[in-house]
Amino acid sequence: MATKKKTLEDITKHELVPEHIILSDKEKKDILKKYQLEQNQFPRILDTDPVCLHIGAKPGKILKITRKSHTANKAVSYRLVVESSK
Amino acid sequence: MERVNSITKKIGEIYFTLLSPNEIRKMSATKVITADTYDEDGFPIAMGLMDPRMGVIEPGLRCKTCGQRVGKDKCPGHFGHIDLAMPVIHVGHVKTIRDCLRSTCRDCGHLLLNDKQRDDFIDQIGQYAIEGRNINYLYKEIITTARKSDTCPHCGREVGKIELDKPTSFRENGKKLTPTEVREWLEKIRDEDLPLLEINRKSARPEWMVLTVLPVPPVTVRPSVTLQSGERSEDDLTHKLVDVIRINQRLQENRDAGAPQLIVEDLWELLQYHITTYLDNQTSGIPPARHRSGRPLKTLAQRLKGKEGRFRSNLSGKRVNFSARTVISPDPNLSINEIGVPHRIAEELTVPVRVTVHNIEWCKELIIAKYAPSSLEKDYVAGVNYVIKNAEGVKRRIKITDKNAEMISESLEIGSIIERQLMEGDLALFNRQPSLHRMSMMAHRIKVVPGKTFKFNVCVCPPYNADFDGDEMNLHIIQGEEAKAEAEILMKVQENILSPRFGGAIIGGIHDIISGCFLLTNKERKVPVAIASYLLGAVGYKGDITVCDDERIGRYVMGRDIFSTLLPKDMNMRFKSKTYQSLDSEEAFVIIKNGRLLQGTIDENSVGAFKGNILDRIIRDHGMQAGREFIDNVTRLGIAVATMFGFTTSIDDEDIPEQARLKVAEGLDKAMEKIKNLVKAYEDKELESLPGRSLEETLEMEIMRVTGRARDMAGEIAGEHLGLENSAVIMAKSGARGSMLNLSQMSGCVGQQAVRGERIHRGYKYRTLPHFKKGDLGASAKGFVASCYKKGLNPTEYFFHSMGGREGLVDTAVRTSRSGYMQRRLINALEDVKVEYDGTVRQAGGQVIQFIYGEDGIDPTRSLNGKAVDVDRIIADIKEEA
Hints:
CATH class of the largest domain in chain B: Mainly Beta
Strand content of chain B: 5-15%
CATH class of chain A: Alpha Beta
CATH superfamily of chain A: RPB5-like RNA polymerase subunit
Largest sheet of chain B: 6 strands, mixed
CATH topology of the largest domain in chain B: Barwin-like endoglucanases
Mean pLDDT of chain B: 87
Oligomer: heterodimer
Helix content of chain A: 25-40%
Structural class of chain A: alpha+beta
Number of helices of chain A: 3
Strand order of the largest sheet of chain B: 9-15-14-17-8-16
């Protein structure tokens, strides 16, 4: 049981979980400006998402996600953390 | 053009609400009391169904409400109303009425919830709205909760059981509720409770779901038509309204005269029936109202619903002007960019041209051109069909005839628009359904041709998926300058040679073009000067060419030199030809140095669509224009070669020598023997099963393998005797048409027939056909066809072959319908996703889907197998230079 719990705590280490980084406020502003985006036009992620809980992302923050990609080797995308309804 | 006078606006919101009886009366132009339409003199009866206050349909007459006519000032028509003697339930709302009755008290009208429950639900509704959750589940829960209480928590009345008898009657504890009682009950429901019943007080009161007044749609909505016999024929809606008024009147008279309850109730029910069918004539549970001829009437719901309804037929799909449709046929002399349009069509379709200072003389001449004596000598002269004059804001359309042409030409003013007939070089969109990808609709340059069919270059068949077995296609003439520019840049055929699916050409040489190139370049072909000059003439070559001399055949030109005239001077390539794909020697390669074909056979791997290496390279290095020219020239050359050299295939192309046939038979016998042994081994339980398979499965797999090999063997033997001097083989090997498998089935052996990937096993008990013994597992009993098509199949073989063939047909039928529906859903889901200028992929609202298109920002059309850069090519080029 103890080992199982330990693996759960390490979800970001799993090969299928891409790298999530919380952007600083300055970086967030830059991203919004770069893409000329309103907050609601971002792809979203719930604050109850296991990754968000793990890295402590709070609503309003933007996560930078670096995934593996078939076409480009690495693909960067951003997601806005939003409050879940429950 | 018309945009000057109108302003485009965006619709923010649309609300649907119920009409209150007061609103219906307020908007009504007249009360309708007479069930008749016209009197004997043919005038509409006042307060009848065709009362001119509800609008007019005859041109010239003026509407009595707004004073406008039907044509120019456009009287939109006005509603009337019928006062119903007794209330009637609206079929469209029965479910809502049922829910309202079930969750409220009949005496006090309160919701059957105590105060706490009610407050909780109100809180929850607010919560759901904030969270954006689907609120329907909550409304359902409110109703189920309210239904649970046995007595009203407010006045203590016992709650009755409400049942809905489809379609329109209600019962409380088994006792029928009249519409009047229902309405009274609904009236009692308090405004404060409405939000909990999913009713917005601003848009409706529940009692409005029970009709007391019926709106009568304007005459323009239900026009009557006058037949040739002078008889009037009324619209279905008018017929239905006549019924409603008649019964309504009788009901009123009977009730006022104090007729027995029974009669009144019967009439009331009849009124309910008529109004129900007036709203929806396909209500389940009641017979549809019929026309005198027995045809069911098309009432309100039927006008809107389904594929032929207003939405799908008239709003989502509209008919267009300036378009034509006819049968298609091939013409190798046209460029792939062109389309041959028959005279008859070219004279009917027009392009609008605004008359300006610069072109007024030209326009004037154009108007009379058609009627000038000199036009008789020419095949086709473009003329003008209409002149649109713009006098004081009113547009006048004048048709040009031989009588008025002269006059109109002289009085032509600047600012008018002439609609001129098609001319060579106009742009048009050409389309074949089903339009599954963007290449199903491409822009072509018009070429006016005699005949009655659209003609185009055969190379453009694959993107349209067209053939000439009777296919028809559509043509749309571009009407504006912006549209023209856009089509020119984005939609022209030459811009669509490369497919966005994989970045290769999907337009390229096919069929005879490939055969022709093969004949020209295979095996050191020498072409006598006379023929060579004809071929070079076909592609319009004007340069020099090496002429050789030979004692035996005289002066000749190498076939590959003729082909080389089509290649750019800087081309250097080396690749394997398709014909000699399996060959490992040097001669299997096509070698091009400085635009000269030094060696090799030109076939599908050089000029074909999908895999033409030369074609690909020309497009990549020299652009679309050069690619188009290459395809045009290859078409002309290929066809010219095929016509000059002669190329034909017939049934004796499938002949193989007697000893080869014996060899095939021998091989098949061996295979039969093998299968017999396998079956015997299985029956003696000596067969060893493969891992993960049962004994039966193992046997089947082994037999399938043997039969497969037997067919290949037959094909090989047949192939040995079918050489490259055989036209059918040339076509198969060069990739023009057909495959070696087709040939081996024709001259070797057809092979095992299968249904769902297994040998045929269905049919009678323990056997496929009564010709075999029960339990026979042998080859011929399970669908092995040992004959070839040339020899012919025996009856059992033919039957099995039909079974396999049927499966193929069913598969295609099922696949097309299923994939069609899937495509429809996909397109609807993705319709406004687009790549913005910053490279992001966004939805209509600007929501980002991908931050860079495809995560790498590469347009697959311009990529090489998905890679942006062709490294191998760059290395090869640098090596070449060194």
